[in-house]
Each structure stands twice: as C-alpha cells, then as structure tokens.
C-alpha cells in the first residue's frame, strides 16, 4: 500500500484503502439525518471520496492546492478528515479550516464531530469571536472564521499551531479572506512545511494560482516563531549576499518539505442533481414573486423544504408575513402544513439555529434567508431554492469615505452557491426569478472582492500590527485603490492608532488591533479608561451590547415593540439605551434568562443580554491585562454621554446591517462632502458637523438621539475631526 508523506512522519494506513465498501462499524453518532445509511456510508458516497488519494498526493508534491469541486461534494467536511486520518495532525499540530461565516463554522464542525463520533469541542472544534469550542492539546480539526485566524496571527504570526490550513469558500473574497491569502503567502515563505488548500465550487482558480506561483522569494529557513512585535515582514532576512544569491532562484512558493508550487485540483461529480428554472418574463417585484413561487411550490411540487434568498431583515420579515398570510388561503393544503423561518444576522443564535431543525412530519419548512447561508452550510431537507439573484452589498466611496449598503444583482458565482444549497441530501430544484438571458447578460461572473469596495481601516491596522510597515507593497490577490489606502490611513490617524509619520502608536494602536471589536469600539473602550472619562464600567457594557445581535425580541407586534423601545430608550442615543437595557435587565430579573417576566413584558431578549454579559467579562479581562483602571462614571450621565459622543461614529458601523440609513465619517482632509438632501444640519462648528436626522436604524428609533447630544459636548471632547452624513441605503 502507498505511503503518504506529511511533515516529519510517515503516514499511517488510510482506513479507506483497506476496506472500501467494507465492514467497519460506523462511529457512534448523536444525529444521523439519513436513517437508511450509516454516516460512514454517507461519507463514502460523496464525490470527493474518490479523489482523496489525489488530494493527499497533491499535498505531497505541492505546497498550495487549489481545490475546485461542485457544491456539496464534500470539500468542507471530508477533506480535513482525510488529512487527519493520513497523519497531518500528529506532532500536536492542528488542521485549521477557515470559513467566511460563523454559522458555517459552527454547523460544519458539529457535522464533522458527529461523523467522527467525537464530542464537539474535543478532537473537532470551532472558534468564532467570543466562542471557543476547542480543547488545547486535544483538538485536531479546528473550524473558524477567517477573521479569527487573522486575530490569532497577532500573537503567533507564523501560525505555528497548524500543519495545514484550508481556506474554504474562498470565492466569497471577504476582506478577511483576501488579507489571509496575502499573509499566508508570506507565512509560507517562512514555514517550509506548512501546506495550504484553497477550496470552493466557484473559484477563479487561475487568478489564485497566478498569485501563489508568482512569488519573488522562495522559502527561507527561519525560526518557526519570531518574537512578538519584532517580526518585520518587509525586511528581507539574511545578509545582503545571501539575499543576492536567493534572488531569481525560484519564482514560486518555494519547494521545501517535499513539495513545490501550486496546483489546481478539480473534483468531478456532484452529490445530487439540481435542476435550474428561469422566468419567461422579468418580474416587477422580486419579493412578491418569491412569495408566490413558495406558495406554488407548496401547492404543486413534491415534498421537500424551501430556501428563499432575500437581501435583508425588512424584506425577509415582510416575506415571512406574506407567506404565512397566503398559507391561510391555500386550497388543497392546511396553513399548518407550512412552517416559515426567517434567517438573518441580527437574529439571536437560537432563532438562527431553529431554521436548521427538521420540521415535524408532513410539514414543509420554508427558510427565508439573507446570503448568510449562501455558501458552506447544509440545511438538511432543502429541496427547492428560490433565488431572485439580488444581494445587499457593502460599499464605500474611497474618496469621500461614504459607506453604504446597496441592493445589487448578485454574481453568477453566488447564484451557483445558492443553487447548491439544494441537492445536498436529495435531488433539488432552483427557481431563479429572472430570465435566463438576463442571468448571463446582467450578472457579473464573480463577486467583486470586498477589499476593492469597502473601508480598509481594520485591515490596515492588522497589517501594521503584524509589522508590515510598507502597506502599499503588501501583496493582495486584488490590490485596493490608492484612495482607499489613503482614507483608511487617515481614519487610523484620526483614531490615534497611527502617528503623523504613519507609524503604529504603541501601545494604543496595538491594543486597538488586539481587542476583539472594531477599531472604533476598541478606541471607545480604551478612551473610557483615560482621565476625564473614567467610565470603563459603562463602556464595557456598551461595547459588549454593540457586539451582540439585536437585544429586542423579534415580533410582529410592531406597535407594542415601539412602546417598549420608548419606555427603555434614553435621549442620549442608542449606546446609552443599550446600557440602560442591560442595567434594567439585571435589576429586574434573576440570573437566568426570563422571557416571561420583566424581560418578556419589555420585549427584551434575555439570552442576548446574558451573552452580552459574557462578552463584557471577556473584554474586562483584556483591560485588566493591560492594567487599565476600570472605574464607573456613576450617576454622571453627561460624562458617559461625552464618551459616546467622542465615539459616535461607532454607530455607523453598527447599524449598516439593518437600517435604511448609514452614518458616515468624512475624510479628515475634506471639510465638505456630499450630504443627502434629507439631512438637516444642526451645527457646523469646526471640528464637528452634526445633523439632526441621524436616523439610521429601523430597529431603534431614538438613534435620532444624535441631536440630543449637545454639540458643545462634542467640541469639548473632539479629539479629531469627523462629520456625519446620512444616506438612504444606496437607493
Ligand atoms: N448538517 C448536515 N446534515 C446532513 N447532511 C450534511 C450536513 N452537512 C453535510 N452534509 C452532507 O455532506 C455533504 C458534503 O458537505 P460539505 O459541506 O462538505 O460540501 P462542500 O463541498 O464543502 O460544499 P460547499 O461547496 O457548498 O461548501 C453534503 O452534500 C451533505 O450531503
């Protein structure tokens, strides 16, 4: 039998080589959706199973493997297991798998743990922000968001805990994915034995291959772990002579450890066929068309659950209501035969996971979702996908710094991913709500990488922290514009993370990168510990509350919800409203979540507040590690409000997801920028520009509270120049 090489060890026997179709007992599992087949048999039937030896072989020969295979063929769940079985996790190193979304990390890790017959969090685990389900020394396969791996690189730049990394669903090209790819290229030049798999069903494989092949330096023998903060990636290591000798020797990622260069591997075959249907005439209102399609499916199609893709919370809630209403008038089915679940980022985790649970017998489940579950995830039982081919995408004008959300046609690659959510556990059908000709004519083939259309502030701060000083020469798969670099550097300067020479301010800048929230919220936290503010207790709560989902119970009793919001809302704005909610919750309820008592009456979602408390405690540990004073502002509300005012632009970032408006900062250099006609100027006293109608969230109306913050406070605390602008959701 063939032996497969992996760093430092000979591979043990691969279990599948000895007994294809054989007799091994399936691992004990908690949950097996396909009652006819054991999980082991289900695994063998996946298309990727036939290619496992080629994958192992490719990793022996090449340092970077780009794996392209149909949606559902087994890339995310199976490949890490093959590698684990082949010994890639001996020597205590892990296989790390990054995915763009938290829900994917959680659900795929659970599935793999079941398939391997182990407890989630032990041999197989996941890490997402504020939730680490791994065990040191035990976990061998770790799923995580790409953002989390980036954070890990701050303390371990060479990622020495991993023998192999898989960047899964790389087609998504989030800003984190692109940053990671650029950094991994650097890491691989330093760590000869590290291997990288980049996988997706809809990847521009050739562009990535060119990126990983066209490298000017080859692998260097450097210590595995440089000392913290001292690693200067930009400076070549070794003497000038040795650098000269190396130049021109190898143009690819070097061939250390038995492999060289980069290869593209295609996995043929798909789990089940997915038939795609298009409209014969364009539709006027895609939400209405989606609702009608769901009802048609329910009345005329075979059994099977439905997944509908819409662009945001408002559309989803409207569609959920419309489907429920339409179900009441069905001719040949009862209203109870249809269960409808919304799924979007602002929903609390328990409600998100409810969409994954199997429905009762004879009931058809309909999940109406954003692109949250467009890639990676498997919702068992989904047979039909309804896709209007639209998405709400983040964008920023690099010159003005105006950020906005815009509803735009999705890419063909995204539409393929969406269709791929059917056909995973049985044959499926996808209804695209546009004409076939329009699909190929109007939709771009690939999604424009996020890095080319959004703000780079966090990304550049990370790079600075990793010691990458020459940011413009950092290699991105798709380099952003110079204007975007300038804007982000100005923001970092405004936040105090960089000095006027563009150097990282230590420790402030480092801490802003290390703390697990956005640079703006991190700045607020750090500012709160300074003299003159002294309200870290309050800031910890406000920061924690910004990082959980909406703390209000999602309900259709909109009027009642509005009343509750008014009763808990405070004039100083959202952050203080959230602070108030948190305080009141613990004043009125006992430790445990209490949705029936005070919290239920006030439409406050108890589990979300408890989650915020956990996050608050984690943030406090960070501040204590920095030995920063944690004191309370007590009854001094203006002092706390001053802090909020100084950090007002936080709200911009926090409310892009669910509101109709976006609040923006101006570039430091240009005092005037385009102002939406609906904006009402209250004060233009330099260095502040304040607008009255800072309504930017459909969720919490007193975010209008910007007006309630006395502009005089603003001028008192203004560390830097910013201004706000309202823009209507890109429409
Ligand atoms: N939670 C689950 N419940 C039931 N079956 C599952 C589940 N997760 C995975 N599977 C099965 O495993 C198969 C492979 O899933 P996997 O996520 O590894 O595919 P993939 O190739 O990574 O897909 P994608 O490109 O869409 O991310 C699915 O098609 C499905 O049959």
Automatic annotation (TrEMBL):
Gene3D superfamilies: 1.20.120.1080, P-loop containing nucleotide triphosphate hydrolases. It comes from the Eukaryota. Residues 228-237 have a biased composition (Polar residues). Residues 290-467 form the Helicase C-terminal domain. Its EC number is 3.6.4.13. Residues 56-212 form the Helicase ATP-binding domain. Residues 1-27, 218-257 are annotated as: Disordered. It is an enzyme of class 3 (hydrolase). Pfam families: DEAD (PF00270), HA2_C (PF21010), Helicase_C (PF00271), OB_NTP_bind (PF07717), WHD_HA2 (PF04408). It catalyses: ATP + H2O = ADP + phosphate + H(+). Keywords: ATP-binding, Helicase, Hydrolase, Nucleotide-binding. One of its GO terms (molecular function) is RNA helicase activity. Belongs to the DEAD box helicase family. DEAH subfamily. PANTHER family: ATP-DEPENDENT RNA HELICASE, ATP-DEPENDENT RNA HELICASE DHX35-RELATED. This is RNA helicase.
């Amino acid at each position: 039998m063939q032996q497969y090489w992996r760093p430092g060890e000979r591979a043990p026997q691969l279990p599948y080589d000895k007994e294809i179709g054989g007799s091994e007992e399936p691992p004990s599992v908690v949950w097996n959706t396909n009652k006819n087949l054991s999980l082991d048999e289900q695994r063998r039937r996946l298309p990727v199973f036939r290619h496992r030896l080629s994958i192992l072989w490719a990793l022996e020969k090449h340092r970077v493997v780009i794996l392209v295979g149909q949606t559902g063929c087994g890339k995310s769940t199976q490949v890490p297991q093959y590698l684990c079985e082949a010994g890639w996790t001996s020597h205590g190193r892990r296989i790390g798998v990054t995915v763009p979304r938290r829900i994917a990390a959680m659900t795929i890790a659970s599935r793999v743990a079941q398939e391997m017959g182990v407890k989630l969090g032990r041999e197989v685990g996941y890490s997402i922000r504020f939730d680490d389900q791994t065990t040191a020394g035990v976990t061998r396969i770790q799923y995580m968001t790409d953002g989390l791996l980036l954070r890990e690189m701050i303390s371990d730049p060479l990622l020495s805990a991993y023998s192999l990394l898989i960047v899964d669903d790389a087609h998504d090209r989030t800003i984190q994915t692109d940053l990671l790819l650029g950094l991994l290229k650097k890491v691989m030049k330093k760590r000869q034995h590290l291997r990288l798999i980049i996988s997706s069903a809809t990847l521009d494989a050739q562009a990535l291959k060119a990126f990983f092949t066209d490298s000017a330096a080859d692998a260097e023998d450097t210590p595995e772990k440089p000392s913290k903060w001292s690693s200067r990636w930009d400076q070549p290591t070794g003497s000038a002579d040795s650098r000269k000798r190396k130049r021109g020797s190898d143009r690819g990622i070097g061939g250390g450890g038995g492999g060289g260069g980069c290869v593209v591997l295609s996995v043929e075959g798909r789990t089940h066929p997915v038939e795609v249907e298009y409209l014969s005439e364009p539709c006027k209102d895609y939400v209405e068309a989606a609702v009608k399609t769901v009802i048609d499916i329910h009345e005329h199609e075979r059994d099977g659950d439905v997944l509908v893709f819409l662009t945001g919370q408002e559309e989803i809630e409207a569609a959920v209501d419309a489907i429920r209403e339409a179900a009441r008038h069905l001719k040949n089915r009862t209203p109870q035969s249809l269960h409808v679940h919304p799924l979007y980022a602002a929903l609390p985790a328990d409600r998100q996971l409810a969409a994954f649970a199997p429905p009762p017998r004879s009931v058809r489940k309909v999940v109406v979702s954003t692109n949250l579950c467009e890639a990676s995830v498997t919702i068992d039982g989904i047979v039909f996908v309804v896709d209007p081919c639209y998405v709400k995408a983040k964008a920023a004008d690099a010159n003005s710094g105006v950020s906005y959300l815009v509803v735009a046609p999705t890419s063909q690659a995204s539409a393929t991913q969406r269709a791929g959510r059917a056909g995973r556990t049985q044959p499926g059908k996808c209804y695209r709500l546009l004409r076939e000709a329009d699909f190929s004519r109007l939709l771009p083939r690939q999604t424009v990488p996020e890095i080319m259309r959004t703000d780079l502030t966090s990304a550049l701060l990370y790079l600075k922290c990793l010691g990458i000083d020459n940011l413009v020469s950092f290699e991105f798969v798709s380099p952003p514009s110079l204007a975007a670099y300038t804007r982000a550097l100005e923001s970092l300067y405004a936040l105090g993370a960089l000095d006027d020479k563009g150097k990282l301010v230590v420790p402030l800048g480092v801490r802003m990168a290390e703390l697990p929230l956005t640079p703006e919220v991190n700045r607020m936290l750090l500012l709160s510990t300074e003299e003159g503010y002294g309200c870290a207790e309050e800031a910890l709560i406000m920061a924690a509350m910004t990082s959980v989902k909406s703390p209000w119970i999602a309900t259709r009793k909109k009027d009642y919800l509005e009343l509750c919001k008014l009763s808990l809302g405070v004039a100083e704005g959202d952050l203080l409203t959230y602070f108030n909610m948190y305080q009141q919750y613990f004043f009125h309820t006992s430790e445990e979540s209490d949705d029936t008592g005070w919290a239920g009456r006030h439409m406050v979602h108890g589990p979300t507040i408890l989650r915020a408390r956990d996050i608050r405690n984690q943030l406090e540990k960070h501040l204590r590690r920095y030995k920063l004073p944690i004191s309370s502002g007590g009854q001094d509300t203006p002092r706390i409000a001053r802090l909020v005012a100084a950090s007002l632009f936080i709200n911009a970032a926090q409310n892009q997801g669910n509101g109709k408006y976006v609040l923006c900062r101006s570039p430091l250099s240009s005092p005037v920028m385009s102002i939406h006609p609906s904006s009402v100027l209250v004060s233009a006293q330099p260095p502040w520009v304040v607008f009255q109608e800072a309504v930017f969230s459909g969720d919490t109306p007193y975010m209008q509270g910007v007006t309630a913050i006395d502009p005089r406070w603003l001028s008192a605390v203004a560390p830097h120049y910013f201004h706000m602008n309202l823009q209507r959701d890109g429409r």
